[in-house]
Amino acid sequence: MKKVAIYPGSFDPVTYGHIDLIERASAIFDRLIVAIARNQAKKTLFNVAERRLLLEQATKKFSNVVIDDFKGLLVNYALKKEAKVIVRGLRAISDFEFEFQMALTNRSLAGKVETLFLMPNERYAYFSSRILKEIVALGGDAKHFVPSYVEEKLKTKLNRA
Ligand code: PNS
Questions:
Q1: Of 18, 52, 84, 153, which residue is the catalytic one?
Q2: Is the peptide bond before 13 cis (omega within 30 degrees of 0)?
Q3: Measured from the CA of 8, which atom of ligand 1 is nearest?
Q4: What residues line ligand 1, using a CB cutoff of 6 Å?
Q5: CB contact set of 130 (below 8 Å; sequence gap of 6+)
Q6: Residues 2-61 pLDDT 10s
Q7: Domains of the chain
Q8: Where are the beta strands (DSSP E) in 52-146?
Q9: pTM beyond 0.90, yes or no
């Protein structure tokens, strides 16, 4: 039986930190579904179609990675996709509380779905999409954090092109 994992998130937009995680997880599982959450309370800069296009471009070199989006509870989506594992990145201690809460909530909703935490390369350990947007909005250089096509899209969105 093929080992399927879900890597869920907002991906607003995809960064080198996410790509690093995708590479690590795709080496462990037969199939990795990178799943954009649709129903978040969070207001996003990019719509789902835009985030999806950027993720597709960022992951085309990984043959066992597919991009999808989902509505509703993550565990229901994981069960529907027959994925036993949810992959999440853990950067710093600041991530821990939210991730701990989410992993145990998901376990109480669906005990058969495990959450697996991976650490990104330390280069990206302090970095987030939120900080990235701030850098670009203020005219900073984001080339160390995102591929050039993501930076271009960010500049256009944030009127920095
Ligand atoms: O990239 P993010 O914003 O940290 O991702 C958070 C995400 C999308 C994984 C989380 O909000 C989520 O799973 N949302 C789906 C709704 C859900 O299942 N909620 C209950 C578990 S906390």
A1: 18
A2: yes
A3: 9
A4: 8-10, 37, 40, 73-74, 102, 105-106
A5: none
A6: 999 999 999 999 999 999 999 999 999 999 999 999 977 889 999 999 999 999 999 999
A7: 4-125 (3.40.50.620)
A8: 65-70, 85-89, 114-118
A9: yes
